[in-house]
Amino acid sequence: xxxxxxxxxxxxxxxxxxxxxxxxxxxxxxxxxxxxxxRYHGVSSDRMEWIRRLLVHSELxxxxxxxxxxxxxxxxxxxxxSSTLKIxxxxxxxxxxxxxxxxxxxxxxxxxxxxxxxxxGEEKFNSRLFGALSNFGIVCASDRADSTxxxxxxxxSHQGIILRFNVSRELTPAFRNAVVPIRVHYSQxxxxxxxxxxxxEQKVFAMIGTKAEAWKHERxxxxxxxxxxxxxVPSTIVDGVILGLHTSANHEYQIRKWVAERKSxxxxxxxxNRKDSFILEPVPA
Length: 285
Prior knowledge:
10 helices, three-stranded antiparallel β-sheet, five-stranded mixed β-sheet, alpha+beta
């Protein structure tokens, strides 16, 4: 039980991935993940330091969902409608580690059941889940490198870069016990997730892996770990860097310098538009 009063054993997701019979499972995500993921990256403010630490020291920055630009991102509400039996089973299981005697525990279970059947109680439980989720660290990436829109608003109007992640070889086993890949699904409506019946993994995967349909063009994947901040990764995770159409000479110089310092092979590309076309494509730089 968390200090807030709600059981939030979310760290199980990264400590011991569970293969559940659902599209929202660790195994299904690993089976679907592409060979490479592409992280669109700006170069202003502290972002160049993030790039330096990743390229030179293999430290990848995982951000909190509380900083995301979409206010509904990672804010999926749950369905609290279930049978009395399911609700009682849930709270009995979640209070088994309470340091309470049998009488006090029984009283607390009744209180939790009563509270969970009110609108205020549902909002409170959802808020606690959102708060716990904001402690996770998330890296957002895409399975495509040629999105003009994403270059425009995630790579600072094509002045930034793309970091190419090799996840086919490295995510397993190097990341297996530390990072979970989650494929984002897009929808007009929140997914219907039964609070009392879904597993912790299903709840977390639904919250992190569902976004508004308006973002569908991003084709996003998320790498999730137990806390935000810098996280040491295998150096071979990054095997390529793509310069934007308007990456400055100064930024290019710095990035070339850092790539040259790397111990693992790292290809360097530059984006260009195909002749007489709006189509973007990377070429060796």
